Structures are given as structure tokens and as C-alpha cells.
Amino acid sequence: MAVGHGDTSTGVDNSTELLETEVDYVENSACTDYSSSGVPDSQLCMTGMLDSGTGLLNATCNGDSGGPLYWTEGSGKQVGITSYGPGTDTGCGDPNITATSVFTEVVDYAGWITNVKNGLVTATYTTSESDREYYRENGSLPNAVTDILGSGDGGGSVPLWPLLVMLGMAIFRKK
């Protein structure tokens, strides 16, 4: 189950509610829409059922990045963080794409998460309100922040560092 506040289809956001969608696992070796050899083991590929009303597959979309992916069978633990999917040229939920959603696999960062929770990791940069405001107005980070953290150019995907910062903030808030 993927959860998020993102678009309900490419370029369309017609809900203010937190949404969820059921997705199914696709083996990484079959996840070749983003790389001919599939995606790395640190990622999980998913696809959804076809919605006969829209003709689209259940999927994550723009604005869902950073949201959770849960296994609904068993423990219901978070196993992924929404990372990317088809670009805007293809569109969210495109039935011609094998894997409509790709997630960062949380277990690969379990040691780091544990260290953050135990206070063993010190932030290398703390985002200020002015940084957030700059990002909201410009859609990018101030040059000084980019110089510290790097550009994070992920070929249209959301850079991993903001996802990890958000995860760290969520863990800190739960404490």
C-alpha cells in the first residue's frame, strides 16, 4: 500500500485528502522502464491494478515522493519511501509501463535509521525557514545549500538526501 498527497493523475490534483493505492511487487530485473538492467537492489518496483474507469494503473504520482510504502500482509511495516515513477512525458499510471512506482527500500538504511534514533548521527546541515521559503518560491534550493549538499540531480527523480532528512525528522518527532 502506497500513501501520499500527490497528484491523482499526471498534472491533476483533485483531492486534499491523504490517499492510498494498492500496488504489487515487480522484480527489479523486470523493472527495465528506467534502466535496461533493472533498478538497483536498494529500490523496490511496484505496479498497480488497472482502473477500468480511467484506463490507468494504480500508482504513485507527482507529489507523493517521500511518502511510505507498506506491506499490508503480516506486520504492516513501512518497507519503502516513494522515490520516482514515469516522467511527465509518459504519465502516472501508464499501462504501458511495467513498474509504475519505484521506492527506496527502507531496510537498506536500517543501520543509519537506528543510529539517528539513538542520537549517534549529527546532521551535516539544518534547513532554515528561509531555505524552505526559498524552495517554495523557486522550486530549488539556494546555491549555498546546494554547494553543501550537492545538486542531487537524479534525472527527474527526487534526490535521496531530502527523503532521508524527512525520515530523520519523522523519527525524531516520534521520540
TrEMBL record:
Stored InterPro entries: Peptidase_S1 (IPR050430), Peptidase_S1_PA (IPR009003), Peptidase_S1_PA_chymotrypsin (IPR043504), Trypsin_dom (IPR001254), TRYPSIN_SER (IPR033116)
SUPFAM superfamilies the record matches: Trypsin-like serine proteases (SSF50494)
Pfam families the UniProt entry points to: Trypsin
An annotated Gene Ontology molecular function: hydrolase activity
Lineage: superkingdom: Bacteria
Enzyme class: hydrolase
Keyword Metal-binding on entry: no
EC number, UniProt record: 3.4.21.-
Record-annotated Peptidase S1 domain positions: 1-118
Family annotation (PROSITE patterns): TRYPSIN_DOM, TRYPSIN_SER
The keyword Hydrolase is annotated on this UniProt entry: yes
Record key words, sorted: Disulfide bond, Hydrolase
PANTHER family, sorted: FI18310P1-RELATED, POLYSERASE-RELATED
Protein name: Trypsin-like serine protease
